[in-house]
Amino acid sequence: MTFWKYLKDQRIVLFGWFFLIGLTCLVVWLSPDTRLSFSTISYLIILELLCLIALLVTDFLLKRRWWQKLDLSKQPAPLEEYLKGAAKTEEILTQEYVNSLLNEHQKVMEKIIDNQQEHKEYIDSWVHEIKVPLAALKLLLDSAEDDLSEDIYSLAENELAKMDEYVEQVLYYSRLDSFSKDYLIQEYSLKQVVQSVIKSQAYSFIQKNLRFSLEGEDQKVLTDGKWLEFIFRQLISNAVKYTPSRGKITVVFSRNKEGISLELKDSGIGIPAKDINRIFDKGFTGENGRQSAQHSTGLGLYLAKQLADKLGLELSAESVEQEGTTMLLFFPFINYYDEIR
């Protein structure tokens, strides 16, 4: 707080001082036995004014120390630190009130964190439990393949694959906050990661008669293989979903002085220009998602973007309606790693 703001807050004191000075002068002027010259009155007023200013300045300097502790514009106070240093009764009351709020806030936050942890543990447990019946259904479906028509078998297998994908999304979504405890950076072959994901999506490619090609030399990157596979699986899943039958999907590897690029190109329906800047927002399905025959959760690209950011990768998209979409995953070189190479 500045001194001028302090004076503004003390306007009642200043008004009272001027009123008392005026009242004193009036009493002296009305008293017939008192003889004071104008210069004497002026001297008295100036002397009292100087005393008032000295008193206000001293009070301001004493209070400024306390106000600095309450001024969050200069240095935001950590919510885990209690307010200290109160000296006057007014300051003690303020300190006790603020500290009681902080204490209540900490109790509420601890309760929220505990509830979130319990929720996360339940989700993790549920995901692992649901994978068992899903795997069992897949085995049952495979064993009954000869007894089912090709269309029914294909439909059932496709629905199981969707269920497994949605379960994976739930698992990775619940682990976003604990990412720092669940990753291992190693050197991986981009080609092997891509081929592994494409292999898991082979049925979708066959069902829609999509062509796939891999261009460019294989590149080695430092990343977490599990999280990278999940990111690429979300990208390839979207590409397959929005590419018409007999379309083409291409993965291109490239390298420059700044890093390594993985481009996923499809010949699909593309993304409207009004939606392109929002496709990584949580829950956003866009015009294509609302009109598509296949349900869209709006989580796939959101999770891919969040995980890419946590891995230090850059994920972006370019698209032209009715021509296709290109998703670019960029792996910037780390300085010490670049120097070694």
Basic shape: elongated
Q: What fold name goes in the CATH topology slot of the domain at 188-340?
A: Heat Shock Protein 90
CATH class of the domain at 188-340: Alpha Beta
Radius of gyration: 36 Å
CATH superfamily caption of the domain at 188-340: Histidine kinase-like ATPase, C-terminal domain
**In the CATH classification, which architecture of the domain at 188-340 applies?**
2-Layer Sandwich
The total count of helices amounts to 11
- Helix/strand-derived category reads alpha+beta
- What are the low-pLDDT stretches, counting only 5+ consecutive residues below 50? 336-341
Percentage of helical residues? 55-70%
* Oligomer status: single chain
Mean pLDDT: 82
Query: Taking strands numbered 1, 2, ... along the chain, how are they ordered across the largest sheet?
Result: 2-4-5-7-6
Report the β-strand fraction as a percent range: 5-15%
How many individual β-strands?
7
The biggest beta sheet is recorded as:
5 strands, mixed
